[in-house]
Specification:
The protein is of the alpha/beta class and about 120 residues long. It has one domain: Response regulator (Rossmann fold, 3-Layer(aba) Sandwich). It has a five-stranded parallel sheet with strand order 2-1-3-4-5, sandwiched between helices. α2 packs parallel to α3.
């Protein structure tokens, strides 16, 4: 069972993702900040990180750099409400970029694609 780390400061949304992705057969852990995500990665390496960009203590772009600095093989999907970040070259290090939506079908599809491409699962 692939292990996902969902990082989003919106607790309600993060728990929705946790519930839906768990129903899809993933093991899911939630972190509500970039710093919490980094601590979680030290405890257990995820097969994939779903990462929000706009967060208070450390934005997702900074967190991405630190995550990849620890382990550049961890696949990361940016999941954000803002399409403007798509043009920021720093986001290009991510494996995918998804605009948040109440419909999780695009996020689910990108997770499947990235896991298949990066980890073979």
């Amino acid at each position: 069972m692939p292990y996902l780390l969902v990082v989003d400061d919106d607790q309600t949304l993060a728990y929705l993702y946790e519930e839906e992705l768990t129903d899809d057969g993933y093991e899911v852990t939630v972190a509500h900040s970039g710093k919490a995500a980094l601590r979680s990665i030290e405890d257990k390496r995820p097969d994939l990180v779903v990462l929000d960009i706009s967060m208070p203590d450390m934005d997702g772009i900074e967190a991405l750099g630190k995550i990849l600095g620890k382990d550049e093989t961890i696949p990361v999907i940016f999941n954000t409400a803002y399409s403007v970040y798509r043009d920021d070259f720093m986001t290009w290090s991510a494996d995918a970029y998804v605009i948040k939506s109440g419909d999780l079908s695009e996020l689910r599809q990108r997770i499947k694609e990235v896991l298949k491409r990066r980890t073979g699962t």
